[in-house]
Write a structure and sequence with these properties.
alpha+beta; D-amino Acid Aminotransferase, Chain A, domain 1; 5-stranded parallel sheet; Rossmann fold; Dna Ligase, domain 1; 20 strands
Length: 446
């Protein structure tokens, strides 16, 4: 097992990894920008190293600085967390070349699944159903028109190297296609350094269902059920729950088996998430995230499995001590993402926390690095807390969530807590009758 792990991330996920390490008897190194010198994970880590000024390119994306910090502190592994360098195959390779362990999957798997076109080709070869669309990057408008006519409008133009909804444009009919391609290519180039885009059939009202995968270095792969991530704004997740209100036992089993069997063929190691769109009883692969997910806590709540601990053990070469038959799902869990944003305009709201009170009680978990007096910097993602609720069923979970939201106090900044409270007054959400378009097109528009 590792003696010291450098955590190449910040915020709640860095603190989450630190806590798992501490419970495993592993020392931690926190790297941080000058803006995060007072962060909770920095204060609690065994050692900390400042790696640069606030901009991410100069700190959390600064590979030489991170490797230097690992060398100076004697770390033997690096955990990339979520975002930043977590899905950068070059970083994973460089870490290994420096004699360190990258806590994550093989670099070649990160590279394959990071390219959406290659990911789709690989998924098809592994037996996963995919949305009809182009097999390669669009080379001309004429090619795009031919493909769109074949699969039928409306269509989506998507960045090959994309993610998070960037580089994605909808074309309702042929006259919209040229503009959609140009916009998607411009966004893709700006966000990912590649203007390659491809085309897919647009599904009108699907659910976003993802399957949690765990694979070790000995050929064992299992799944830990699904998460419903359909409540989204601008392709960014707002709330996740498991099990999905849209699935029954048969469809749930089908999705889990599809994901686990395909990843065993792939030889996948570490944590990973297979993401599907689900419509009219059919699953369609859209992408794979080769890392720990922000919403991993709800899977932990219904399975009782510490995913971060499992990820670290796998990277240390330990065989999985679980088989699929060991996995038992208990109750229902919901995660609310609490962002430092105005709940109506979604304008970022950084600032100093005047007072902070986290809700508690049975079935309530908070993943957050906030504390009274902490200054939320304006340079990074606005996610500041995750409220995770567990109950014996969905109704109990919803009632407990309502109580916990009422207790949650984050003073002196705007947060999205009122948005979640408003959600709990929606009969459509309470009934589980929503899809990936519902939040923006109906709930927020009303």
């Amino acid at each position: 097992m590792f003696e010291k792990i450098l955590i190449a991330n910040r915020g709640d996920i860095a603190l989450r990894i630190h806590r798992a390490c501490r419970e495993m008897g592993i020392k931690t190194v926190a790297v941080h920008s000058t803006a995060d010198s007072g962060a909770m994970n920095v204060r609690l880590a065994d050692e900390s190293v400042c790696i640069g000024p606030p901009p991410s390119n100069d700190s959390y994306l600064n590979i030489p600085a991170i490797l230097s910090a690992a060398a100076v502190t004697g770390a033997d592994a690096i955990h990339p967390g979520v975002g930043f360098l977590s899905e950068n195959p070059d970083f994973a390779e460089i870490v290994q070349e420096h004699g360190l362990t990258f806590i994550g999957p093989k670099p070649e798997h990160i590279r394959t699944m990071g390219d959406k076109i290659e990911a789709k080709k690989t998924a098809l070869a592994l037996g996963l159903p995919c949305i009809p669309g182009s097999e390669n990057a669009i080379e001309s408008l004429d090619d795009a028109i031919d493909i769109a006519k074949e699969i039928g409008f409306p269509v989506l133009i998507k960045a090959s190297a994309g993610g998070g909804g960037r580089g994605m444009q909808l074309a309702l009919e042929q006259k919209d296609l040229a503009k959609a391609i140009n916009l998607a290519q411009s966004e893709a180039q700006a966000a990912f350094g590649s203007s390659d885009v491809y085309i897919e059939k647009y599904l009108a009202n699907p659910r976003h269902i993802e399957i949690q995968i765990v694979g070790d270095q000995h050929g064992n792969v299992i799944h830990l059920g699904e998460r419903d991530c359909s409540l989204q704004r601008r392709h960014q997740k707002i709330l996740e729950e498991t099990p999905s209100p849209a699935l029954n036992g048969k469809t749930r089993l089908l999705a889990g088996q599809l994901a686990a069997e395909s990843m065993q063929k792939f030889g996948y190691e570490s944590l990973g998430t297979i993401e599907f769109l689900y419509e009219n009883g059919k699953f369609f692969f859209i992408e794979m995230n080769t890392r720990l997910q922000v919403e991993h806590p709800i899977t932990e709540m219904v399975t009782g499995i510490d995913l971060v601990r499992k990820q670290i053990q796998i990277s240390a070469g330990m065989p999985m001590d679980l088989v699929q038959e060991d996995i038992v799902f208990t109750g229902h869990s919901i995660e609310c993402r609490i962002n430092a944003e105005d709940p109506v305009s979604f304008r970022p709201s950084p600032g100093k926390i005047s007072d902070y009170h986290a809700p508690g009680g049975l079935g309530v978990r908070i993943d957050s690095a906030l504390y009274a007096g902490y200054e939320i910097p304006p340079y990074y993602d606005s996610l500041v807390a995750k409220l995770i609720i567990h109950g014996k069923n969905r109704n109990e979970c919803l009632l407990r969530l309502s109580r916990a939201l009422d207790e949650f106090v984050i003073g002196n900044i705007e947060t999205t807590i009122p948005l979640h409270q408003k959600l709990l007054m929606s009969s459509e959400f309470l009934d589980g009758e929503y899809n990936i378009n519902w939040l923006e097109s109906k709930f927020l528009a009303s």
